[in-house]
Amino acid sequence: MSQPMNRYKMDLRDLRFLLFELFKVQTDVLSKAPFAEWGEDEVNMVLDESLRFATDVTGPLNQVGDKQGCSLREDGTVRVPEGFAGAWKKLYEAGWRSLSAPAEHGGQEAPYFLATAVEELLAGSNTAFSMYPGLTLGAAELIKHFGSERQAQLYADRMFRGEWAGTMCLTEPHAGSDVGAATTKAIKNDDGTYAIKGTKIYISGGDHDLTPNIVHLVLARIEGAEPGTKGLSLFAVPKHRVDEQGAITGTNDVVTVSLEHKMGINGSCTAVLQFGDEDACIGELVGDVEHRGIKQMFRMMNFARIGVAVQGLSVASSAYLNTLEYAKDRTQGPGIDSWKDPSAPKVSILKHPNIRRDLLDMKAKVEGIRALITKLTTHQDRAVALQGVDDEAAAYHQGQVDLLTPLAKAYGSDQGFAVCERAIQVFGGAGYLQDWPIEQYLRDAKIFSIYEGTNAIQALDLVGRKLGQAGGKNAQAFLGDVAKFVAAHREHPELADGVAVLGKAQEAVAGGAMQFLQWFQSGKMAHIPLSAECYLEMVSELCLGWLLLESAVVSIEKLKEVSDGHPDKMFYEGKKYAALYFARNVLPSVMAKAKTLGTADTSAVDIPDDAFATV
Amino acid sequence: MSQPMNRYKMDLRDLRFLLFELFKVQTDVLSKAPFAEWGEDEVNMVLDESLRFATDVTGPLNQVGDKQGCSLREDGTVRVPEGFAGAWKKLYEAGWRSLSAPAEHGGQEAPYFLATAVEELLAGSNTAFSMYPGLTLGAAELIKHFGSERQAQLYADRMFRGEWAGTMCLTEPHAGSDVGAATTKAIKNDDGTYAIKGTKIYISGGDHDLTPNIVHLVLARIEGAEPGTKGLSLFAVPKHRVDEQGAITGTNDVVTVSLEHKMGINGSCTAVLQFGDEDACIGELVGDVEHRGIKQMFRMMNFARIGVAVQGLSVASSAYLNTLEYAKDRTQGPGIDSWKDPSAPKVSILKHPNIRRDLLDMKAKVEGIRALITKLTTHQDRAVALQGVDDEAAAYHQGQVDLLTPLAKAYGSDQGFAVCERAIQVFGGAGYLQDWPIEQYLRDAKIFSIYEGTNAIQALDLVGRKLGQAGGKNAQAFLGDVAKFVAAHREHPELADGVAVLGKAQEAVAGGAMQFLQWFQSGKMAHIPLSAECYLEMVSELCLGWLLLESAVVSIEKLKEVSDGHPDKMFYEGKKYAALYFARNVLPSVMAKAKTLGTADTSAVDIPDDAFATV
Question: Which residue of B has its CA nearest to A527?
Fold first, then answer.
């Protein structure tokens, strides 16, 4: 058996395929405003260099962070794992976390697709570490977008540059999924600042010693504001008070009460924070309008949800590639044609059909989710680029971003976890050991389906908000795009059977949308949460099936020009089989789910509360 | 929020229903030979008392064991978690682990169904701890069955009584699933003993300080024996050499090389053992015939596989009941009818339809798997009771045990894990914390799908051995039993739609068997491992759907006699909804899987090795 290889693995060829061959960013995103400085070479250079960074700097700290975790010192400060401070410094020196930041704040104004691709490398090599700079960037971006010019200079600028860090503080003990139940208070002071008082829980990066200051973005209710999310306002609450030059002038009554002990992402500090217990916590309203907190927070939240999708993808991808290497390396049993002959030569487990099926399933899901995320991020860049140029086209692209976000978050996190679980299974007993990276991936991955809105919340976002958004236009455009692909390729010489299944899946998803519409209109509200998660899976699988088949169409075309020895030949062959596998083995479940959805079973609401168990 | 409740939960009412109302052990198992001493009262008393034991003794040590784990001292001995030694002593004093043991060895000759029910309580309250006595019992039972009278007295007797412990040593670094590749050697000594030499890995309970001696059952190849499993013999290899009175006379050259660091079951010591590195390890052939090792080991292995099924059930059941309590207790958001009104009263999450669906899904799976296991164990008792009385009936019962074993092991472990995963999801962020028992359940549960034969191996056992066993009679009898149920209840006033789906699922499973037969006959061997796991799920879901519907038939009948206030009313109502839910939401996937199976997709074998990735 080879030595355990506790290290990050990534196949950049797949990203390059998505960017330059499938979504073709070089045609209308690169080298044009607002990304005029960014050409294909620059993109490739960033991918190569940031993979090197992930492999050399953050990757080796992944298991260290898991084992050491974070701890609360007696003086109330938090110790993060060894090496994290050095990695933070190197990250901002290299500029990998400030790629998309504004130039005036030290950034490079790179396309969002590229920042997200780099995020995959950072998250996959060290999920826990990557959360500190990820949240800092999101908070900085929010302040820059909604805050005053002064706040952008005082706070966001330092956060973009990695001088200070940032967090998002939503959850309270009684307000998890029900954010609107938050009770943290804000009382206006005479100088225009607000006194903040309340407890926030599950705050990632809530405290640490990576930076001298941390800017918390805190959702709170100004005295007298209405209940629910509409009464919330957003405040920038620095851990330490600062003067206008950013020099620390004193503490701000933000106390780390405790840290959570978790199943995974141990290197990421998850804190309970108490604001204003001594009535000495001062916050500034972000921008100058009260009661806009939830809308403002949702800008950050939407990016954070895409970030979680990327986390799911990133560990699943490394789990897949580690498993593939193990399967090539591990010898066990004779081949299938001599399975009853104990003296037959032993083969690598990659030769066993069930292992190949597991690997192909993992490959199809990993590459399908990467395609979904890249579709989303390139829509985002096109929406930005087309704003004011072609507003209708920009609206189409933005609509697809909105529609795809809950799919990417929920399906990416659920399947990310499932891929890690399958990886353990292929490793066998070895997968259960800490000697290999897989069991940590699984433990880290479990949180992805919970934070930034549980996957049940994502499903309600899809069916309750996104399906009907813009009068249903966004969903219709998506279904129309799939239908166009089906029409164009139903006679494809190698993929016709897969395309036919895709067509049926498209009809099933369209029918499902009508079903939800009918439930809403007839007030059969219980059906919505009962069926939403099932429907989210259906739409996600339709989307993956489509993108995998489209990738196969492109690849089969390219195969005509590739000579036998060229490494691309095998790459394109792989795309073809991933699409065929998914179309034959996963897409049919979309129709099966539609059938179940159609029965509108209410057994779960009909069962009396006391009938679940007698204890 | 209520205080975290890190404790074992179990609903004995469900077990009593299965034993006395569904499988009716009182009619032909209890109070008759060989279980003449065992009546309904005795069974109920044992269940009550052993649940108390699990709650008071083993349960409180579950998290302790997880946190402390096992460690290898400098002197080469192993330290198990605090309290395990005391629990071991109390367990054998109370007799819960010797229920089924022969009376002459201090046991009570209880039915297997009862020993297994108690095993659920021990495993669910503390999986890691329960493995030490579980393996000891299995090893003792093997020695008693195949060993000499002297071995039974010297070894098995002390193991049944908990004076010594036992292990099973199969796996080697290069021989995991491929047991027949084992290279551990046995060389016959002049005195009839054998010199054992080799390395065994993943040995659960491989060393510990619970007992002064441990009897390892070691598969090894006698010099000159043929390759593969048929050349293996089984040896009793005590950790310390003993005289004929059982007094320890010296060491036996069995060295604990290292312990594994695992994802879970940390309280269970997983050792790498080296036998005979100094050429001073002596083993005794179990019994007096060489080269029967694999057959002998399989007797223990089959019981161990059922034990793993029970492990999966046991943690899933406690996860479900903990989650149910949490859902009743945790208040979040308004009810579905006022979901847009932030001032509406908050409700317990049990009121949310998607949470109810998750809970009912968990309930149906937990209770369905418990029904499957209880069906299996009561078949076993009937097979034993009928042997020599009605051999044809005994053969039927034994055939069902054989057929159901891989289903219980694989489906029980896979779904046990899935239920724990769903439990975390219902808990939300809290489920990810070590404050609650769920994340440990999930980590512990992941090994169940791997050890005692991976679930891929179980699936091959089902389609390659069990389907065709006894000329296909066992499988036909199973399908016939389901068909009889469908015929008898297709007009059932409340369950007819569920019974109709069951009928279709039965046809799909029968069709699948023909499909495998055809693949075998036509030599299309790759299809077997490609499709076996999917088929195992189909058969398992058919079986669960059947048993849940049969439980509902019985419950609906009983409901006629139960008054409104009686606690049984809600219990029986619960059985009805669990069956309806499963029939409407899970059973249809059997037909969908059959369809996928029928396409006989070969993409996973067709894809070239190098097409999986470019790295």
Answer: B353
